[in-house]
Amino acid sequence: MILDMRPMLRGEVDRIAIDFPFSPRLPEGVEPDGEARVSGEVTDSAGYMRLTLSAEVPFHGVCARCLDPVNDTFTVELERTVATEGTLTKEQLEENVDEYAVIQNGLLDLDDLIGEEIFLTFPMRVLCSLDCPGLCPKCGKPLKDGACGCPTREIDPRLAILANYEWAKDEDDKS
């Protein structure tokens, strides 16, 4: 969405409400589940303009640990100081790239701002829950359903021959 900032720059309004649908780019393996929605506002307080945005992105994917389907909504908040083109030096913009939204020719491009924020803050791996235990590495059973019965103590195959000796069996009985 391209927001026309000229009424605010002329001093006609001190607040512009924002509400629009958005189609974000999501990481591989994650699909949008409906339409994302962006809402917020730009406020002007004695020449100090502030942009506040919130985006809700419904999505579906697969849990990276247990492979169960995941349907969730990702929410991201974005705040920037709004400046007109030419009021900031190139060095100021480069050093504080995440602090400013720049108005060019009286227009503010919100798609680039919110799209980049969603893509950069979206989780690298989708999880069904933060404490998802995943799958058993031996049998593949989901561990959130309970223990699978696989042995938890693994003997190093390079040392397995030692289990054949009598003194090793005595040590095993003690533990």
Structure overview:
The protein is about 20% helix and about 35% strand. With about 180 residues, it is an alpha+beta fold. It has two domains: about 1-120, no CATH class; about 145-175, no CATH class. The strands form two sheets. Strands 2, 3, 4, 5, 6 and 7 form a six-stranded mixed sheet that branches. Strands 1-8 form a two-stranded antiparallel ribbon. A hairpin with a 6-residue loop joins strand 5 (about 50-60) and strand 6 (about 70-85). It starts with a strand and ends with a helix.
Could you list some keywords that capture this structure?
alpha+beta; 8 strands; two-stranded antiparallel sheet; 175 residues; 6-stranded mixed beta sheet
Summarize the structure.
With 175 residues, this protein is of the alpha+beta class. It has helices at 6-9, 90-95, 110-121, 166-174, and strands at 2-4, 15-22, 31-32, 36-45, 48-62, 69-84, 100-103, 107-109.
Task: Sum up the overall morphology in one term.
Answer: elongated
User: What integer is the average pLDDT?
Assistant: 87
Proportion of beta-strand residues: 25-35%
From the alpha-carbon coordinates, what is the Rg to the nearest angstrom?
27 Å
Structural class by sheet pairing and helices: alpha+beta
Order of helices and strands: EHEEEEEHEEHH
Total E-strand runs: 8
Number of domains in the coordinates? 2
Give the termini separation.
67 Å
**Number of continuous helical runs:** 4
Helicity range of the residues?
Answer: 10-25%
